[in-house]
Design a protein that fits this description.
Blueprint (H helix, E strand, L loop, with lengths): L2 H14 L5 H8 L3 H11 L4 H11 L15 E6 L3 E7 L14 H14 L6 E10 L8 E10 L6 E10 L2 E12 L17
Antiparallel strand pairs: 1-2, 2-4, 3-6, 4-5, 5-6
Helix pairs in contact: 1-3, 2-3
Length: 198
């Protein structure tokens, strides 16, 4: 494949999936990892970690319900009460030593904390979760969780959030979360506030 055509393909792949790894691009374009890295450098495209950092700095609302370091994974996009994306790389401390398969509670924690982080409220807690693990996640894989607020009406003070977690193009986890949120009756603007005064 001529270099110009390869560069166009590379740009198209990254545009479709900004979280694609160099290794995934080598499989897609059938070239060596060194070729991918050289092409990225020529095109001025930073490595995945730097792309994630740039996205995180520019494209999301501030998390209100948690401290940012309480969210499992790196939040790279967040629109409160709408949608969000986080990335979580599975490292040695997240896997079973014997088989290098990720412990399920880490994959769940990424999805759950992103669902809570989406809520535009000071208080947001998981009321219930209906989850499915679709395949094992292995050491070194990057989990990309995408969360969507599906409903804020219905049950008063609760929001329904759906989360899908992918490794590459393959879905590995799906969760439907019911998130409790304060109704805002006591803390909204113009509302009555009660406080202990000493």
């Amino acid at each position: 494949m001529p270099k110009k055509q390869r560069h166009q393909q590379l740009l198209k792949i990254i545009e479709q999936n900004p979280f694609v790894t160099d290794r995934e691009m080598t499989r897609e374009l059938k070239v060596s990892i060194q070729t991918i890295r050289l092409d990225r450098m020529e095109l001025g495209i930073p490595e995945l970690r730097e792309r994630m950092k740039q996205m995180a700095e520019h494209s999301y609302d501030q998390v209100r319900s948690l401290q940012l370091d309480e969210v499992v994974g790196d939040v790279v996009d967040l629109q409160l009460d709408k949608s969000g994306i986080s990335i979580f790389e599975i490292r040695e401390e997240h896997v079973f030593t014997r088989n290098h398969i990720a412990r399920g509670h880490y994959v769940f924690a990424q999805a759950n904390s992103l669902a809570v982080a989406l809520i535009n409220d000071e208080i947001a807690l998981t009321a219930s979760a209906d989850i499915r693990f679709l395949r094992q996640v292995h050491l070194g894989e990057k989990c990309i969780a995408k969360a969507y607020v599906r409903s804020m009406a219905g049950q008063k003070g609760k929001a329904k959030v759906e989360v899908f977690t992918y490794v590459g193009e393959e879905m590995v986890f799906q969760g439907n979360f019911l998130i409790y949120r304060s109704t805002g009756e006591d803390n909204s603007e113009g509302g009555v506030q009660y406080a202990d005064r000493h």
